Amino acid sequence: MEQGGQSLRNEDRISELPEALLVQILSSLPTKVVVATSVLSKRWRSLWKTMPSLEFSYNATNDLERFSNNVCRCLLSHQAPVLQSLDLSIDSDNNENSMDCDIGILLGVAFGLHLRELKLHVSSRKLFRFPTSLYNCGTLDTLKLSHDVVIDVPFPVGLKSLRTLHLKGVRYKDDESVVNLLSGCSHLENLDLILYARSGVKTFTIDVPSLQRLIIRSTGEVLYVIKAPSLKYLEVGWSINFDSILIGYTLELEEAYLSISSKNYDYTLGSLTSVKRLCLSQFGPVRFACN
């Protein structure tokens, strides 16, 4: 009985599970841990190469070149027909051009795997310029960029599959870069923006006929021009003056949440006539001019 119990305790039952279930279990673990499972047995040796989502994080205490090589090796070993998502977080005090090259190469390899979703967070003394060659990815469905990333788009892009775009705390080369970026997202439905002071843009033009959901949070002095006839949800907050927001007619708008920074202002509600739910919040009296 004792011998049988010992045998039961040593039995590797998890390896007998279907591969699809094992991949689902591994998907809940950090990529670094998933790769480490390759030493468990022959069955696990290549299992990590089929993971649909990968997540990598770098901080200044690690060696950037070694990190870049390891991530590149993982991406080149990937065997799934499509890489569903890549989450890449870089926290560095590196001030050298090599960082741009390393990140650019990694993103290029990932895009070659028919990447669907990219989350890129860069926190560095040196700004990372998002490669212009990657603005024409036909498979990208979701793009989330944050912090020390520069949007420099000298020509219209071709992100025809993009439906969700988050730009949080990034920098812009100029107003034209915003126009060129959004004009190439012909199927964009969700746009989430955070703009701080010194964002590099004076007029942020959102001319996207397909846009349905828009969130803007800003602390800088920026003029927002919104042309989104299909918009259904609008949220505006932080220290935005409403005389700096020009909204075209949004006949399909259902919900609007507006947080107002100025104590007194005139605001025409003509462009919000279709809204079914309107929430206003501010710390002072509101004066409307309804025409």
Automatic annotation (TrEMBL):
<dbReference type="InterPro" id="IPR001810">
    <property type="entry name" value="F-box_dom"/>
</dbReference>
<dbReference type="Pfam" id="PF00646">
    <property type="entry name" value="F-box"/>
</dbReference>
<dbReference type="InterPro" id="IPR055411">
    <property type="entry name" value="LRR_FXL15/At3g58940/PEG3-like"/>
</dbReference>
<dbReference type="Pfam" id="PF24758">
    <property type="entry name" value="LRR_At5g56370"/>
</dbReference>
<dbReference type="InterPro" id="IPR050232">
    <property type="entry name" value="FBL13/AtMIF1-like"/>
</dbReference>
<protein>
    <recommendedName>
        <fullName>F-box domain-containing protein</fullName>
    </recommendedName>
</protein>
<dbReference type="InterPro" id="IPR032675">
    <property type="entry name" value="LRR_dom_sf"/>
</dbReference>
<dbReference type="InterPro" id="IPR053781">
    <property type="entry name" value="F-box_AtFBL13-like"/>
</dbReference>
<dbReference type="InterPro" id="IPR036047">
    <property type="entry name" value="F-box-like_dom_sf"/>
</dbReference>
<feature type="domain" description="F-box">
    <location>
        <begin position="11"/>
        <end position="61"/>
    </location>
</feature>
